[in-house]
Amino acid sequence: MPWFTRWYFLLCRLLVAPIIRLVHPSLIQLDEQLPEQLDGKPVCYVLRRHSWTDRFLLERLARQQGLPVLSARPGALPDQEHATCLYLPVLKGDSKRKQQPLQALIDSLGTRESPEDYPLQIVPVSIFWGRDPGSETSFWRLLLGDGERGGALRKLLVMIAQRNNVLVHFAQPLDFNTLVARKQQDAREAARTLARTLSFYYSRRKVATLGPSLLSRGQIISMVMRRPAVTAAIDELVASEGESRAKLEKSARKMADEVAANFDSRLLRVLDLILTWVFRKLFTGLRVHHADRLRRAANDRQLVYMPSHRSHFDYLLISYALYKQGLVPPHIAAGINLNFWPVGGLLRRGGAFYIRRKFGGDKLYSAVFKSYLGVILSRGYPMEFFPEGGRSRTGRLLPPKLGMLKMTLESCLQQPGRKVAIVPIYVGYDKLVEGASYVKELRGAGKTKESAGSLLKARRIFKTSYGSPHVAFGAPISLEECLTRVCGNWRQQAQAGDFGFLPGAIQHIAQENMTRINAAAVVNPIGLVAMILLSSPQRAMAEQELLAQIDYFIALLQRRPYSEDVVLPEGDAREIFEQAARTAGLSRIEHPWGPIITATGREAVLLTYYRNSVMHVLALPSLIARFFRHVEQVQQSSLVEACADMLPFLQGELFLRVEAEDFSAEVAEHIDQLVDLELLKREGDTLSRPEVGTMAFAVLTGLGRILRETLERYTMSSLLLARNPGTEAAPRLDVENQIIEMAQRLAILSGREAPEYFDKNLFKVYIDTLISEGLLQSEQRDDEAWIWSDGRLSQHAQRWVNLLGPDVQQSMLQLIARPDAPV
User: Fold this and answer.
1) SMART domains annotated for this entry (predicted)?
2) Is 684 exposed, middle or buried (0-12, 13-18, 19+ CB in 10 A)?
3) Which CATH number, 3.90.1520, 1.10.238, 3.40.50, 3.40.1130, labels domain 217-488?
4) Phi then psi dihedrals of residue 554, to 5 deg
5) Tell me: the pLDDT tens digits for 415-429?
6) What residues does 339 pair with on adjacent strands?
7) d(CA 428, CA 229)
């Protein structure tokens, strides 16, 4: 190193070091195993640009995180004790040196007999000063932008302004010998290979963290107006209705203005501060799961997020979680009902774009909205929409609506070369902020309209703690792989303008997304305790019995995990119970023989919500246990066959993670687990339940009651549908209303307070499954569905009846047999 370079380096360190000490960087990815992976190996860190400040910050972080320290003499090879640092521009050849450092390194290594003698590790490091993806220049962007562009003064100002908003990403190390393959390439070509690899990595890392360069809202609207779909819709309306083109263009622009987001990266920092304060007031801490896998997917794919929808806080929590994880928040499809002052404009600047609930056959609006989706997807912006359409009032996932997914896939197919991944997201809550309003709505109250007034009334929520919300990112779905699975030659068909494969692909992706959402479920303490406590007829249980059942349920979930992504509660049974009791407001009644835990009133209704959000993880064991509710012994072969026949109905409602051809094998494996835990006994092909009065019997009984309300719904629906087999068909809507009326009456007579008795979607899903299984016939008459049954449905109904207790069977049969029952 020349003497002037050395003095310049020391001068920079002297000037910048005080500021570096004030910087509080966020490590958005640092594998816990990285120090161990690099231990005892020569390491070369690579930065994406030449920057003394980045290097000095890297030195500090390496010491703090136990990584190899940057101490090698410049120009010298790193060794086991001294790491070195290179810069991407130098690797790319943007230097005045005759021989680049990497080429010299390769030449020096060429004399070694074995590559193992020098296992050099290349560690790319990305450092972002701020969250500005880049657009126009202004004073505010000078202070709130990043320091990638501009001179030393700009960088110095950015360092001061953004010292608390610095993101650092350590990538997985690249083995130099494997990457370059020295024996097959000369030094110059090997250097180019590494430079290209790193250039692509830094480019994708920047897009994933900061997002693509932003266009102004006006530019996006202008691009929408120039889209062929919009101009064609205007031409059609001019020709068919004779309206003025200028008037239609003005109307289209007004629609685009209604839809378009106004994403502002500067506001994200402000929203970060506001939401941090709000969430600290409401929650005890946001829990984020499987973010590392998501960051890997973001490195080479454009992401489309499709989360579950349980609360208005969902989109705030997801964007906040992504921002904190070092990923750019998405553009979010929001209902037009949220576009009210002052929330509408604020959400719009945070990335929300608005969609009407119904297009009502408005061809112009449809063209404008589809074109807007095409613009933002073509620009590479990540996007988010809720496939359920609305918030779930029961805790279960709702059947996916396909309209938004259809428009998204159509836009993606216009750019078949772009890699897209759909990201399922499970959002769960220890306690719902909207819990009270949900209870009222399920009991018949109208939905409260969002407004500024309702926002002011919401101040009361700050008086309560709502536990921890959970955001769990499911396994990403590769769009190309899904399309190939549905249609092997979809690319050729798309190029030829044949999109006949699209309906099947939409249905497949929608179902796969919902299945993966449930596969990423977080079984929180309140959900687990709710499953157990609600299995008691009076929602009351001795504390010791409850604790024992927690241990058994956790053992079941650990021995036969529902999926690799399911998150189980931490701590022992006592800790799990106490956490749930604090959040759910459970009552404790002291008694000489031991405490009794109970839930009453509104808390009991909300417990069904929390149970429903996680009950799918134990649905199959619960179905098996239900067969032993009224009999002591069952033949395993008969049990497997019966469960396999019933599983399609549970799968349709709960989006279970099991393929139809594996039903029997899944049932058999769960039986084995129940036998291992001594919840069932097996002699040959005969299975028997434990002795009455034992804890094992109580656990098996409680396990079987998890699906009680679900089985009751199936039974009452089947009995009503099979009442007059072979008779004339009836309008499906009328039949659905009759079933719901019957469910409401049974709920009153039996004292049930389960939300699913009042959810029309669940009855519709069951009828859909009956039709797909061939147990119910359906046909369209004058744009209305008509259905009728045959004798097989009566046999099917009897299976459900056999799983219920005598009291419920009697109540249902009496309702069906009434002379004045609806026909």
Assistant:
1) PlsC
2) exposed
3) 3.40.1130
4) -60, -40
5) 877 899 999 999 999
6) none
7) 39
